[in-house]
Amino acid sequence: MNRRELLFWLSALAGFGPKALAQVLENPSRLYDLPPYGNATLLYFSDLHGQAFPHYFMEPPNLIAPKPLMGRPGYLTGEAILRYYGVERKTPLAYLLSYLDFVELAKAFGPIGGLSALTALIRQQKAQVEAEGGQALVLDGGDTWTNSGLSLLTQGEAIVEWQNLTGVDHMVSHWEWTLGRERVEELLKRFRGEHLAYNVVDELFGDPLFPAYRIHQLGGHAVAVVGAAYPYVRVSHPESFTEGLSFALDEKRLQEAVDQARAEGAEAVVLLSHNGLQLDAALAERVRGLDLILSGHTHDLTPRPWRVGKTWIVAGSAAGKALMRVDLKLWKGGIANLRVRVLPVLSQHLPKAEDVEKWLQERVAPHRPHLFEPLAVSETLLYKRDTLYSTFDQMVGEAVRALYPEVEVVFSPAVRWGTTILPGQAITRDHLYAYTGFTYPELYLFWLRGEQIRGVLEDIASNVFSPDPFYQQGGDVSRTYGLRYVLDPDAPTGRRVREVEVGGKPLDPNRRYLVAAYGGRLQRVGEAKAGYEPKPIYQVLEEYLKAEGRVKVLPQANVRVIGRNYRVPEVSL
């Protein structure tokens, strides 16, 4: 990092004065020493997805928005997000925010995240606040326990142990429930913090399973933290995981929780949410009395708070790449003002938490040979996040086709989690788990008629491109391999998908096609291929990678988008 970049980083992230800047140039660790502000501090992270070790995580090249939502936080990428937040290219904050120059910046600044570095940063910030006479809460926005190798091999237990070592005060949930209701309830008994959820209730009687909120005395004021679990758990995942539970988005119940907290003396109300940024913005316009929403699920990062009506919204990033420090200036009427700082978890430039480092080494020891065995080398960039396409999903399609050449179409789930692999980097099982760490990982082969394939594509487009956030019930668009089509995000429901081709030929609505899919429920609507035994997708990928030795995935986007500047990153070989 040169002097100009460091100066920008410090001014953009920490607001240091000239004297402090000079001192930081002599001691870069002072980057994280923030001047006091307000009466209370919230240390917030979200969507860790069990990533225990330093890794790379590239932001999406494309986030296609429904027309009424274009140009707002949550749908900004590349140059647009840098312009919106006033961030210069090739700076550390640009590395966290944008896919531009990613490989160059990854080599310059190193990997992000890792449990040890994140804990050390949380402890350092909390100690700093307390040394100045303040108080801090550590808040976890959910999607923490699952979707990594260490999580999968310990059924989430290792990540709960880390939360306890770190001192998490409150958490909410989503992917945690894919461990199954019994396992989640078992692990929550071991969690020393508190799980909050106004909307997790008994399906039959409507009784809440968890406290909706907790009131804390911070800086001489009463602050309520209300919890919101992801409202579409049963839509997104097999119902068997959460039998007997409801996660419904219930505005009336949420309003009652806010009103009750106020009636019990809360002067400010903070919603710790796993709804996603757009849904939280819609709720901010409809629920009275919310001062601040800490938003998770959509993996967005907001260097500045987003003001919607009378509510501030701060999104907590993903994969452990940043810790959000939110300093509150409280008064009797609520939050008078706040300061938001993005604290990058640049693992090579942060101290480690020695006890977490020791615990992690011991926890990983039995699994180390399995997790970190090199399976192949990637000659090109492998990434996951995007609205429609990723090089990792293309590699999945190539792997499935290589092992099952009779397959005509491959569907991959559009989950937002998954790390990034740089050109020349070895691919390990730990990487595969980071992309495919489902508790329902089986790859299915089954028959679908052409009209069913088109119907699936239309249903997904209707979900993702609904202009009303209350009807968006998932992530990005499921990726396809062996299939091409034209997408019009602004067309009416049922008419967004056009010119579908399979194998270079127009889709025949009456013909049966052999389809492969994993991480979802699409196989339920098809006819299983006789004689095929489903196997985990990460085993399929391992077999393919070991056979190839080196993989080169050249981007080949298979969707043409009408009315949007959709493109994939160029590859330099």
UniProtKB/TrEMBL annotation:
Assigned protein family: Belongs to the 5'-nucleotidase family.
Species classification: Bacteria, Thermotogati, Deinococcota, Deinococci, Thermales
Biological source species: Thermus tengchongensis
SUPFAM superfamilies to which the protein is assigned, alphabetical: 5'-nucleotidase (syn. UDP-sugar hydrolase), C-terminal domain (SSF55816), Metallo-dependent phosphatases (SSF56300)
Protein name: Thiosulfohydrolase SoxB
Superkingdom of this protein's organism: Bacteria
Keywords per UniProt: Hydrolase, Nucleotide-binding
Hydrolase among keywords: yes
Gene symbol of the encoding locus: soxB
Chain segments annotated as coiled-coil in the UniProt record: none
